[in-house]
Write a structure and sequence with these properties.
Blueprint: E1 2-8, E2 12-19, E3 24-25, E4 30-33, H1 40-53, E5 60-64, E6 68-69, E7 72-73, H2 88-96, E8 100-104, H3 105-116, E9 125-131, E10 135-141, E11 144-146, E12 155-156, E13 159-160, H4 162-165, H5 167-172, H6 177-195, E14 199-203, H7 210-213, E15 222-225, H8 232-238, H9 240-243
Parallel strand pairs: 1-5, 5-8, 9-14, 14-15
Antiparallel strand pairs: 1-2, 2-3, 2-4, 6-7, 9-10, 10-11, 12-13
Helix pairs in contact: 1-2, 3-8
Bound molecules: beta-D-glucopyranose.
């Protein structure tokens, strides 16, 4: 079965039809820069372009960079604040004419990694941590998702962790990979100290360059790079209905 998967991020909105049985993209993905401001109206208009690009009329699964409860957006750390209280699923369904399911973006990436990537067949406690504009987390136990964990927002040095150790912070503060890795390792140690997972899968923008920093991340927990990289958010979003 094919579902259109869309991943809404802080810098880009990406979509492609996905065969949810195989986890493969059916056509090349389409990327449009996230509009500025990233208001509900502007993002909805961008989604019309993506849906039209694929001549899509069927169901759509969509990852969104915030807490999402039954389609409604509860938070807005890296997206326009007007999203808070908006029913994204309803808005996107109305503007595009396609039926939308909306879930947290890290949860979407996690779902894809657990089914087809680095977490395949792992029945233990697994975290997928996406490191990009923010830090997103998805927690699985026995293959089952605990949605909206938001552990990029634990407090470190008086600030939320994603303001201390996200990939955007590395770029904005012009930190060397070594300096940034020290911060990120500290973050991973906090997660370890609180949850003692069996496996941590690192996804998001930073995971495209594991050779730059993985050797700095010594922790007791096994840490691996996401296997589906850029595509995890799209594939997992397409599979969302299965996990809710
Ligand atoms: C948001 C999360 C999101 C993460 C990655 C954080 O700022 O609060 O919901 O998963 O960024 O996009």
């Amino acid at each position: 079965m094919e579902i259109l998967g869309i991943d809404i991020g802080g810098s880009g909105i990406k979509g492609a039809p996905v065969d949810i049985k195989t986890g493969k993209l059916v056509s090349e993905r389409k990327r449009i820069p996230t509009p500025d401001p990233s208001s509900p109206e502007n993002v909805a208009t961008t989604l019309i372009d993506i849906v039209k690009h694929f001549n899509w009329t069927g169901p759509v699964g969509c990852g969104f960079p915030a807490v999402v409860h039954d389609g409604e957006i509860y938070t807005a750390s890296n997206i326009d604040k007007n999203w808070i209280g908006t029913d994204a699923a309803q808005l996107f369904t109305k503007t595009t004419g396609c039926e939308f399911v909306v879930i947290n973006d890290a949860d979407a990436a996690g779902v894809a990694e657990m089914e087809f990537g680095a977490g395949k067949d792992n029945q233990g406690v697994v975290f997928i941590i996406t490191v990009g504009t923010g830090i997103g987390t998805a927690l699985f136990s026995k293959g089952r998702l605990v949605p909206n964990t938001e552990l990029g927002h634990i407090i470190m040095h008086g600030m939320i962790a994603e303001r201390y150790s996200s990939d955007a912070v590395r770029k904005n503060e012009d930190l060397s990979w070594k300096k940034w890795s020290k911060r990120f390792k500290e973050y991973l140690e906090e997660i370890e100290r609180l949850f003692w997972p069996d496996l941590i899968i690192i996804g998001g923008g930073a995971s495209k360059k594991p050779s730059k920093f993985f050797h700095y991340l010594e922790t007791k927990t096994k840490i691996v790079a996401a296997q589906l990289q850029n595509e995890a958010g799209i594939i997992g979003a397409a599979m969302a209905t299965k996990y809710l």
